[in-house]
Amino acid sequence: xxxxxxxxxxxxxxxxxxxxxxxxxxxxxxxxxxxxxxxxxxxxxxxxxxxxxxxxxxxxxxxxxxxxxxxxxxxxxxxxxxxxxxxxxxxxxxxxxxxxxxxxxxxxxxxxxxxxxxxxxxxxxxxxxxxxxxxxxxxxxxxxxxxxxxxxxxxxxxxxxxxxxxxxxxxxxxxxxxxxxxxxxxxxxxxxxxxxxxxxxxxxxxxxxxxxxxxxxxxxxxxxxxxxxxxxxxxxxxxxxxxxxxxxxxxxxxxxxxxxxxxxxxxxxxxxxxxxxxxxxxxxxxxxxxxxxxxxxxxxxxxx
Length: 304
Hints:
alpha+beta; 26% strand; Immunoglobulin-like; 2 domains
């Protein structure tokens, strides 16, 4: 039920080679799980594992960009760096004896600068990372769908924060955990200082009148307050839009069914967000059947 233009487009998508080992190191340093990254990218945890173990020579550039967004880094930081080949045509001329002390001094200075750079990067890696949002790729008008925002905090970097989320026009909050301080077009949470990761979860519903085929946009920011320093405001990263149409939110590829690769991520989301209005029974019934269809009058109908 994804648009037919997507199915009929046979042009190959651009691919890039990622450094899976580097991606895994960044994910583990930020204390992100493979399940969380898989949900943000829209693939399975097995796929994330294969990427991190360099099982594929290249992946779609779009997926690589989503992986970088999930890890809160630029795409260039997870791309594989190809070693440059020496220029065989250029003769190797040894340095003259007079220049050797200068070269040795430059080598020492370079080593010191590299050491300072490594120290700076290690200091930066311990700093709190930005908040990252996960939202489903698809949802239907009038139906509840989940959103999660994860904020990584460490015992070495205690801080509290204010989180704000601006909702799509006409959207209605169903429930949230922790409870929000505001339930209008902008949601707000105040989380006190601490050194443990925080997950803010909420369920949302766009109105029945929302135009199918359009995207509903989410936009948020986190205001971080650490003792002894001024407040820092950052945009929430990760997923920022949901395609609205005749889809179930657990149908991550929009093909009109919930398959084995999609059922487990949906189960974990429902378990983490119990009591927030998600209908696990319908998800399980669609998975057990041959698919589903949706219309505004009857909602989801399971195909037997």
